[in-house]
Amino acid sequence: MVPTVRNRLNRSAGLLALLLLAARALAEPSVTLIEAGELAAELEARKGRVVLVNFWATWCRPCLDEIPDLMALEAELAEQGFDLVAVSLDDAWELEGTIKPFLAKWFPAFSTYVSAERDMDSIVSVIDPAWNEVLPTSYVLARDGTIAVRIQGGSSAEEFAAAIRPVL
Amino acid sequence: MGRPHGWLFGFAVVALFIAEADAGSAGSRQVSAEGRRAISPEIAVGNDGAINVIWLDKGLTANRSAPKKRKPGEHSHRSATNLYFSRSEDRGKTWSVPSRVNPTDGEVWGFAVSKPRINVGPTGTIHVFYPANDKSPKTGLDVVSARHTRSTDGGKSFSTPTVLNRPAEKDRSELLGEGLAMTNSFGTMGVAPDGTVIAAWQDVADMADSTKGANGAVAISRDDGITFESERIALPGNAVCPCCQFTIAFGNDLTYMGYRKIYADGRDSTVARWSDAGRKFDGEGRLDLAPWDINGCPLKPTELAIDGDNVYAATYTAGEKVPALYFSRSVDGGRTFAGKRQVHPGAAYSDAPELTVDGNGAIRLVWHAKVDGPRGLFTAVSVDGGETLSSPTRIGAPPGTAAFPATDVAPDGTVYVVWQQHNEEVFIAALPAPSTVTARR
């Protein structure tokens, strides 16, 4: 077979896919339980940076659609002082049985906290005491820690970027 | 539950004073077993005054640090819980030992917002409706089924559950998320005064994508729940807001169902009605609220109570300028609604409404709200046919979060409220009937 650009690209793509699969198989998702007070301290420590706090759950389909976009934004904007803090509101009882296997299968490179509170509202109230129990909910926190924007419902990368850039 | 008991009272009683300084909750007590994690309670009071409560049991609280392992291939949506039942025949003083309703361990699929339901028929039959983990007999794939079971001995035993939905023939796992090929959930059930049992749920078989709507399905029993007619699509057009729970109520020989509908100008709370025991569509009315669109699962019910031509509705909406719980009223049998008002001005957040109407026409609204702290329970009453609502009064509960109430009204007008205490225990309190009621309007 005569090597062509297309063949070389196909081989490269295939190799890349294999590498990605291998990396995915080896990757361990970064999952940490967090209590309300710990989240408050975490956000306090990140003052000076723009933070998007994303509350999600494995059972919330629109939440899952957002995750790749949020990860891409984190990679793109980190050097400009942007952090993504994801918090799963799944039941912490399901950490080993459900959440970790779910992340390992679908989002192995996603770093997230999992709320250790018994009540979803307790941990979201650290940021928004008037949270209306709707998922997905994200908050863009300005560098001084105040809420710049609240975003509810499944949103696109463009919508997130439009909310982040004015305070970045 | 919103179901007035079967007796009729004349338009009557005068006065308008109502004492609500104490919502009567000093006697709140735990119904679920100590040491076990219990959520999502529901309640039904029979014509004999017996109080029946069900809830989801998540296992021993001591096991919190040792979550169960997922079986290979089991989907993440699986919520393997059990359904428990307890009953009081002495106005809540004593309770039967909680017993499991579902025959197979862990078969119940449920969350605080996709709840099991319980009703008591006119002859005392206890009906329970719940979402269950199942396999489709057609595809062999994991599905969530709508199941019904009944008890004719006061809850001492329950019949073998019946699956009410049609067998799933499609694999909608791409739409629903990992592993679940079909769901028949976010449902409700009601028993009409003549004993007709109507269960309703969301059927996603023909849902276009996760941002579009579902159909509303019903199954009807005319023999006290022994058999059900085949599933019927009562709300076609895939216009039912996904995840928004149905509610059901009866009045004027009509069946009413509350839900959020997807209109061209946005999503809005809507009350549909049927005659002929749920078979003949009779039209629907839209609440007088601003539409609220969200690509997500708002999980907000449109709670109903019926009293003659008066149809009362309460729901949370973020469409209004102030996102909050709103109360509206129809005086023409649900064709039009007007008079929307915020139920709890000043609360940081208010939601999860429950409505009842007693035999005298007194309306009782119970909800959870945040006022200077975690969520607590509040109540208000209308004694003038929904023209006015009393100021919110806090229902006494143990310290911590009290949320997701469920209510039903006893023959003597007492409203019983059960709720989730700190997301771990089920509590109950009794709220006395208003002492006086003005003429209905």
What are the salient characteristics of this protein?
heterodimer; A: 168 residues; alpha/beta; Glutaredoxin; six-stranded mixed beta sheet; 6 helices; 44% helix; 21% strand; disordered N terminus; B: 441 residues; mainly beta; eight-stranded mixed beta sheet; four-stranded antiparallel beta sheet; 1% helix
Total number of helices of chain A: 6
CATH class descriptor of chain A: Alpha Beta
Shape of chain A: globular
| Span of the ends, CA to CA of chain A | 52 Å
Strand order of the largest sheet of chain A: 1-4-3-2-5-6
Parts with pLDDT < 50 across at least 5 consecutive residues of chain A: 1-26
The H/E string of chain A reads HEHEHEHEHEEH
Tell me how many strands of chain A there are: 6
The portion of residues assigned to helices of chain A is: 40-55%
The main β sheet of chain B shows up as: 8 strands, mixed
What is the CATH topology classification name of chain A? Glutaredoxin
Q: How would you name the CATH homologous superfamily of chain A?
A: Glutaredoxin
**Biggest interface, residues from each chain:** A-B, 38 and 38 residues
What can be said about this structure in brief?
The complex is a heterodimer of chains A (168) and B (441). Chain A has six helices and six strands. Chain A is α/β, with parallel strands linked by helices and 168 residues long.
Provide a descriptive summary of the structure in words.
- The complex is a heterodimer of chains A (168) and B (441).
- Chain A has 168 residues and is α/β, with parallel strands linked by helices.
- Chain A has one domain (29-167): Glutaredoxin (3-Layer(aba) Sandwich).
- Chain A is built from six helices and six strands; from the N terminus they run αβαβαβαβαββα.
- Chain A has a six-stranded mixed sheet, sandwiched between helices.
- The longest helix of chain A is centred in the N-terminal third of the chain and has 22 residues, at 5-26.
- Chain A is globular.
- Chain B has a domain at 54-65 and 77-205 and 216-243.
- The longest helix of chain B has 4 residues, at 173-176.
- The radius of gyration of chain B is 20 Å and the shape is globular.
- The A-B interface holds A 58-65, 91-99, 101-102, 105-106, 118-119, 121-122, 125, 129-136, 152-155 and B 58, 63-64, 67-70, 76-78, 111, 175-178, 210-211, 293-299, 316, 318, 323, 348-349, 351, 370, 374-375, 401, 403, 422-424.
